[in-house]
Amino acid sequence: MEVNFKIIALAALVPLVLGFIWYNPKTLGNVWMKAAGLTEESLKDFNMAKVFILTYVFSFMAGMVIQSMVIHQYSIFSVLMSEPGFGEKGSEVMLYLDEFMSKYGDNFRTFGHGVLHGTIGGLFLILPVIAINGLFEKKGFAYIAINTGFWTISLALMGGIICAYA
């Protein structure tokens, strides 16, 4: 299977777009700033271009991982990649993969399925990481909930896009 870098690049825009909405002062921005211990004055020092560029780079990296979470067909490739003849057109293993993909290559390749797995990633990977950091940083429930909610929705939308279109 080929990695669809264009779709991952598109999906990597999700956290930027959602972040503009989620962390806007008219939505959760003021609550988040209070929970994070930030002020408008303290945010003026940021190099926002650097923050947005790095956010996109990190989101692209997340998209690369999300792809393997939401597209189950990648698993068969990882299981067989050390077999003799892998990658050689006409080899026994490649003929098997071609047949497998022709029968099952489109299974579970929907937006909704990607959303499901992105949500699972948010709740069972992102939540524990943010909650553990929040506990040690003495952050409250609002901080953990706002950041986990943001990343769970981001991963859900990214997963949906990648699963349906990659």
Low-confidence segments, given as residue ranges, are: none
Query: Approximately how much beta-strand content do the residues carry?
Result: under 5%
Structural class: mainly alpha
Q: Per the principal axes of the C-alpha atoms, what is the gross shape?
A: elongated
Order of helices and strands: HHHHHHHHH
Please give the number of β-strands. 0
**Radius of gyration, CA atoms, in whole angstroms:** 19 Å
Query: What is the end-to-end distance?
Result: 10 Å
Instruction: Provide the number of structural domains.
Output: 2
Largest sheet: none
Percentage of helical residues? over 70%
The oligomeric status of these chains comes to single chain
The number of helical elements comes to: 9
Q: What's the average pLDDT? A: 96
What does this structure look like?
Helices cover 74% and strands 0% of the residues. The N and C termini lie close together (10 Å). α1 (5-11) crosses α5 and α5 packs across α9. It has nine helices and no strands. The chain is mainly α and 166 residues long. 24% of the residues are buried. It folds into two domains: 5-72 and 109-165, no CATH class; 73-107, no CATH class.
